[in-house]
DNA sequence: ACCCGATGAGACATTGATGTCTCATTCGGG
DNA sequence: CCCGAATGAGACATCAATGTCTCATCGGGT
């Protein structure tokens, strides 16, 4: 009888990922519950988005942990990270675009932690001579998120096969589009 | 006395680029005109966005023309294209996210033309042996837009210096993050 | 200097979403 | 089996944005 909060959040994520402007009513229907019940669990749309933010951050942190980004060669760590992040990618891209709207408001500091972890990975790679040093960690982090988002969207839209998600992102991010002379 | 339609569009673009949810009233104020006048020129918010879409497409096509993407080595053509596209980047990223909302509605076929041009550039590069063939032109096109958007946003947010915009994007897109062994 | 068209300001009705409330129903634990 | 808590459905007030309208004003062209 009691509503499973996490399940509601997943349904909301699945819907909002596809239609960012979905109404509270649509979210409720998608979750298979009444609008009143949705309001009982999440005070309003803001609260819902905040909760989704929490969920996304949690899953991203978990992905980082699983990828063990502090271990081994940095490029392989990036590869593992992209693989682990794939499932959260749609939610991530939703939250990123959603966050652009929350102007100067209080920013969930979970993002800072995540940024720091990604950024640290790229910095480590630079220090170990694996990554180029002329691209700043900040930019590489930004590009990382951007490509994840683009990839998620391209897959959702059928322009890229889901099985190629990881490969396309990792190869472009690490190796770029130019044909390598050496290989 | 008469309102300059293009100037209004530019003001609207400048505002909506920063705050995508800006109200018609805010847009009017930003353009220095009355809300009624804004409505006289653009029937509604949709019409305004459509007009911005037209503007963006026009400017992107112009950028393509200036970049002469059909001439010379493909990688240098990409470099020129990124340079020419820089000014339109914020508007582009606004339109891209805005377009995600227009679900199945009629899609402006200008986008298809642009996609085709970018895609053709990457394909040409592949055929001429300049670009890797294991990344599909469709994905490279998607990534191109994604990186342009990420770059524009990073600059607007101060995480990347404006003067580095072109370099960061082109270098990552063409060369990737991995340090090249050969150089 | 005059006149006509365009503009700005504001009033107004409408619409869509939100948030609150009530009440009947239902599910589950004791 | 029964009671209480949670739910679903819907009514309702509210709010913000939109779109329309009017009217006074302004400005350029003749």
Structural description of this entry:
2 copies of one chain form a homodimer. Chain A has 183 residues and is an all-alpha fold. Chain A folds into 2 domains: 1-42, Arc Repressor Mutant, subunit A; 53-175, Orthogonal Bundle (Tetracycline Repressor, domain 2). Chain A has 9 helices and no strands. Chain A has helices spanning 5-18, 24-31, 35-41, 45-67, 74-85, 89-99, 109-127, 137-156, 165-175. In chain A, helix 1 (5-18) packs across helix 6 (89-99), helix 7 (109-127) crosses helix 8 and helix 8 (137-156) packs antiparallel against helix 9. The longest helix of chain A has 23 residues, at 45-67. The N and C termini of chain A lie far apart (61 Å). The mean pLDDT of chain A is 93. At the A-B interface, helix 8 and helix 9 of A face helix 6, helix 8 and helix 9 of B. The structure holds a DNA duplex (30 and 30 nucleotides).
Q: Which key phrases capture this entry?
A:
homodimer; 183 residues; mainly alpha; Arc Repressor Mutant, subunit A; Tetracycline Repressor, domain 2; 2 domains; 9 helices; elongated; DNA-binding
Radius of gyration of chain A: 18 Å
Beta fraction of chain A: under 5%
Specify the CATH homologous superfamily of the largest domain in chain A.
Tetracycline Repressor, domain 2
Total domain units of chain A: 2
- Separation of termini of chain A? 61 Å
Overall residue-averaged pLDDT value of chain A: 93
């Amino acid at each position: 009888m009691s509503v499973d909060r996490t399940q509601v959040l997943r349904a909301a994520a699945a819907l909002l990922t596809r239609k960012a402007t979905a109404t509270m009513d649509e979210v409720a229907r998608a979750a298979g519950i009444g609008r009143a019940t949705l309001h009982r669990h999440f005070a309003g749309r803001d609260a819902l988005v905040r909760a989704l933010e929490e969920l996304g951050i949690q899953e991203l942190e978990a992905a980082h942990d699983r990828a063990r980004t502090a271990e081994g060669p940095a490029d392989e760590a990036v590869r593992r990270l992209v693989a682990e992040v794939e499932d959260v990618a749609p939610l991530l891209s939703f939250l990123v675009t959603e966050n652009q709207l929350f102007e100067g408001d209080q920013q969930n500091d979970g993002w800072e932690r995540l940024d720091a972890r990604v950024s640290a990975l790229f910095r480590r790679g630079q220090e170990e001579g694996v990554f180029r040093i002329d691209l700043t960690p900040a930019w590489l982090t930004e590009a990382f998120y951007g490509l994840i988002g683009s990839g998620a969207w391209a897959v959702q839209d059928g322009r890229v096969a889901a099985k190629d998600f990881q490969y396309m992102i990792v190869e472009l991010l690490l190796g770029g589009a130019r044909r390598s002379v050496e290989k």
